[in-house]
Design a protein that fits this description.
Order of helices and strands of chain A: HHEHHEEHH
Radius of gyration of chain A: 19 Å
Helix content of chain A: 55-70%
Number of strands of chain A: 3
Oligomer: homodimer
Distance between the termini of chain A: 25 Å
Largest sheet of chain A: 3 strands, antiparallel
Structural class of chain A: mainly alpha
Chain lengths: 159, 159
DNA sequence: TCCCAAAGGTTGATGCGTCAACCAGACTAC
DNA sequence: GTAGTCTGGTTGACGCATCAACCTTTGGGA
């Protein structure tokens, strides 16, 4: 609760819009560059990066999902699309007949390596370099606080 | 420019992920509540709110686009879907044969009024109440700074 | 006048994300 | 061991967002 009532005041409204705009434009720019540089999307990149760092360069879907904090079906759809393009392969898990393990392919490795440097540079240039150290701290704490609050208030909606 | 090299360090990586997670989960929760309370999505709400506040409760597509900072086709698709559900209507503009004006319907007004209170309360509860005043300031400045930087670096990509 | 570029919008294709429904393998209780 | 449930994963439908291509009207000039 706190706050001063139900409606957002002008200041809050402005912050809220700026937050949205920042996210949308940042996401757009990063996607465009990633697409141009390596022919992959941000979701592709996240999956590939997680797999590339994993031991054996493969993960079970469950682990991948936990790592990325994605929904079940979101990952399933994403992996299907990526498999069609040859970035990953799926095979069965020996220990558990239900499970599937996702492995990065050579093509996937090439893509993610091509993308990594430029992507990181882009994130730094557009995001971190625009922030003062104090703002960075605030961002960190605020992000954590909002996530924590979401976890408390909307527990069903957290994967 | 700032920073310390191309790769993101651990701290930065963590902040970046927290930012993404915060946005995704916030967006998900807000959409779910909006859908449940008023049967509309966040994009629906943004359009309806802009129209409801406009003089004559109608705007030309161009103005709506500028207000929301959306891409041309994004708005066109959105309006088409909303028109099918009876939330808005499109009619021709007398002054300019190319233009279209979008008007909110009674059903649209009802929806947006139903949604407004609960939505604002939700944004306050999940976002603003989680932030200290200092964090709010930082968020505001940081958002503005990132947007400004985007405008400078990627001018072509800004609508 | 005629041509041509720019502006306002629309459309189709494709990828992304959610939801609800479903299926199959694994666990638990009895 | 068999019934019921839980868990891991997939699928189909649908809304959302981007891109590229397109159409029409407008507004200048030559």
């Amino acid at each position: 609760m706190g706050g001063s009532g139900k409606r957002l005041d002008g200041r809050e409204y402005q912050v809220w819009r700026a937050f949205h705009r920042m996210h949308d434009q940042l996401s757009l720019a990063l996607n465009q560059h990633l697409q141009r540089d390596a022919g992959i999307s941000e979701p592709d990149f996240q999956v590939l990066a997680a797999l590339a760092e994993a031991p054996g360069q493969a993960l079970r879907s469950r682990e991948l999902r936990e790592d990325l904090q994605w929904e079940k079906s979101r990952l399933a759809h994403q992996i299907r699309r990526m498999e069609q393009r040859g970035l990953v392969v799926r095979d069965e898990c020996l220990e558990d007949g239900r499970a599937a393990t996702v492995r990065i392919t050579d093509a996937g490795l090439t893509s993610v390596r091509t993308a990594a440097q430029a992507h990181a540079a882009m994130v730094r240039e557009l995001f971190f370099d625009a922030l003062t150290p104090a703002q960075l701290d605030a961002f960190d704490e605020a992000g954590t606080a909002v996530i924590e609050r979401l976890r408390q208030r909307c527990p069903a909606e957290a994967p």
